[in-house]
Amino acid sequence: MSEKQVLMSSPDYFKVEYSINPWMVAGVTVDLDLAKDQWNNLKSTIEKAGAEVKVVPPSEEYPDLVFTANSGIINDKNVLIANFKYEERRGEEDLYMNWFSNNGYSVGRIPSEFKFEGRGDAFVYGEYLVGSYGIRSDKEALLFIAEEFQLEPIIVELAQEKFYHLDTCFQQFPTGDAIFYPEAFKDQSLSAFESLFNLIPVTEHDANQLACNAVVINNTVIFPSKDIEAIKTVEGLGLNAEVANVSEFLKSGGACQCLVIALN
Ligand code: ARG
Q1: What pLDDT digit, counting tens, does each position of 12-53 carry?
Q2: How far apart are CA 151 and CA 133, in angstroms?
Q3: Between 20 and 30 A from 156 (CA), which of 33, 112, 117, 118?
Q4: Ligand 1 atom closest to the CA of 86, numbered from 1
Q5: Model confidence, pTM
Q6: How far is CA 87 from CA 6, 21, 29, 201, 204, in A?
C-alpha cells in the first residue's frame, strides 16, 4: 500500500477572533510564534510516524482553516465538503473544494440545509459511517452521506457544547480499541458503537485536555499533552504514544486530530 497521507494547513493567520465553542474567548492572546512551532512539531511527529503531510495554503480571512479535519468526509477519491454551522467558517468550503478538485478528488456537496463538519463528526470505517450529531452536524447530513457512499450509518447524539465534535470525545485505534468520554454522549454507554469497538472510557481530567483528539498514524498515537492518563492505556495496547503539545490551538477548542485529516 502507498504511504499514508494527511492534509494540514499552516497557522500563518491563526488567531481566536470570534467564539463559536466554549473553549474560545474572542480576542484572547495567541502566541503565534509558539503556535507555529507547535504546528511544525506536530507535522514532523506525524511524518516520523510514517505519513506524508500535504498542506492547504492558509488564508488571512479564515483563522480556523488550520482545523482541516473539518474540511469534509473522504471515501477513496471522493470527498463531500463540509457545510459549516457558523457563518465565520463558511468561506472555508470554497478553499477546500478547490484544493480537493486540484488534487484529483471527485468533489460533492451535501444539501445546504444540512450542517456537517467533516472528520470532526464522522469517518468511514469499513462498510460503516461512524458519526455524531446534535451540536455542529445534523443527523440528516450523516444519513445523506451514508446513502451517497452506500455505508451503514452508526451514529450517536452528542450531549455537551464543550465536546461539540465526535473527535473531541472519541478516537479509535488500529487494535479495534477506542477511547471515549462517556459524559459527552446522550447515551453515555455508547452502546451503538459497542459492536464495532472495544470501548475504553477516559476520565474528566483527560477529556478536558482533549485526550481523545489524538492523531493516529499507523501504530503511533499522538496526544496533545503529556499530562494525559490515557497515554498509559494506549501503551498497554501495544501502541506507540507520542506527545505534540498544541496548547495554543486548545484556545480555539482544537487539538491534534482537529489539525489533520487523513487522505487515505
Ligand atoms: N475553532 C474551531 C471551531 O470551533 C475548532 C475546530 C476543531 N475541529 C475539530 N475537528 N474538532 O470550529
Answers
A1: 999 999 999 999 999 999 999 999 999 999 999 999 999 999
A2: 17
A3: 112
A4: 12
A5: 0.97
A6: 26, 13, 22, 34, 31
Q: How many Å lie between the centroid of ligand 1 and the Cα of residue 20?
A: 9
Rg of the chain taking only CA atoms, in angstroms: 17
Query: What is the CATH classification number for the domain harbouring 214?
Result: 3.75.10.10
**Length of the chain as a residue count:** 264
Grid coordinates 506507540 are at which residue? 240
Provide the number of structural domains found in the chain: 1
Question: Which domain covers residue 56, as residue numbers?
Answer: 4-262
Taking residues 147-151, what's their average pLDDT? Answer: 98
* Nine cell digits for residue 208: 478536558
Cβ pair 68, 259 in contact under 8 A? yes
pLDDT (tens digit, 9 = 90+) per residue, 92-101? 999 999 999 9
Which residue is associated with the grid cell 482541516? 68
| Residue tagged active-site, from 165, 169, 212, 256 | 165
> Which own/partner pairs from 121-126 qualify as long-range (CB within 8 Å, at least 24 positions apart)?
121/165, 121/166, 121/167, 122/73, 122/155, 122/166, 123/73, 124/73, 124/74, 124/75, 124/149, 124/151, 125/154, 125/172, 125/196
